[in-house]
Amino acid sequence: MKLKLFFVCICSVIYNAYSQADSLKLGDRYWEDQLYLSISYDVMINQPNTTTETGFSYSFSGGYIKDIPFNRRGNVAAGIGVGYGYNSLSHNLQVINTNTIQIPSSVLSSNKLRLHNLEFPIQFRWRTSNAIKYSFWRVYTGVRLTYNLSNKFSYTVNNTAVEFSNIAIYNKFQAGLELSAGYGAFNFYLYYGLSPIYKNATINGAAVNSKIAKFGLIFYLL
After folding, report:
1. Confidence (pTM)
2. 47: Cβ–Cβ under 8 A, 6 or more apart, which residues?
3. pLDDT in tens, 31-55
4. What pLDDT was estimated at residue 19?
5. How far is residue 126's CA from residue 179's CA, in Å, rounded to a whole number?
6. 31-221 carries CATH number 3.10.50
7. Which of 125, 127, 113, 123 is nearest to 144 (CA)?
8. What is the per-residue DSSP string for 23-77?
9. Model confidence over 61-83: pLDDT tens digits?
10. Where are the domains of the chain?
11. Which residues are registered as beta bridge partners of 112?
C-alpha cells in the first residue's frame, strides 16, 4: 500500500511538472530578465567651462529586478529592482575641504572620484519574447535612483597625495534616465544623470552642475 502511494505521488509530481511546462507553451504569464550586469564608459557633463577631461572613467553594476508583466503574452512589463554600482570617475575639479571645490590652480595627477552606490531601477519593458523564446529584441527604459554609500576624492599635487572621503557637499540622492536596447544577451546601455552630483556647490559665484552620463553594455539574465 505504501509503495502504491509512493508511485501515485511521484506520478502526480511528474504530471504537474509537465502540465506547468505545457501551460507555459500555451502562453501563460512568465517572468523575464530578473538579474542584470552592466559595464560602461562614463563622462562628466555640465562641468565648469575651464575644466578639461583627463583620464579614463568607468563604472559597473549588478542587481536584481522584479519583472511584472502587464499582459498574458508577457511582452509588456514593468521592472522594479535593487542593485549595487561602482564608479571610478576622472573628476577634473579640486576638493579643498568637505564643503569646497575649485578649478585646480596647478596640475593635478590621479584626480579621481570613486563611488559606491545602491541602485533602484524602475523600468517600462517592451520585448518580443514568449514563455519558450530566450533570444529576443528588447527595449527597456525608465529611471534609475541611486543612494551613495561612500564617496572618495583623491589626487596628487606637488608629489603630495590628498584624499577626502564622504564630503558634505556630495549629493547622496540622485536620479537619471536610462535606456537599454538589443537582441539576446548583448544590449546597449545609456544613462543620463538628472541630478547634479554636488548640492549647493559654487565656484566664483557660479553654480556647479556636474552630472554623470554613461555609455556601455548591459546583460540581462533570468
Report:
1. 0.83
2. 92, 93, 210
3. 777 899 999 999 998 888 766 666 7
4. 42
5. 12
6. no
7. 123
8. HHHTT-------EEEEEEEEEEES--TT----S--EEEEEEEEEEEESSSS-SEE
9. 999 999 999 888 888 999 999 99
10. 1-28, 31-221
11. 90, 154
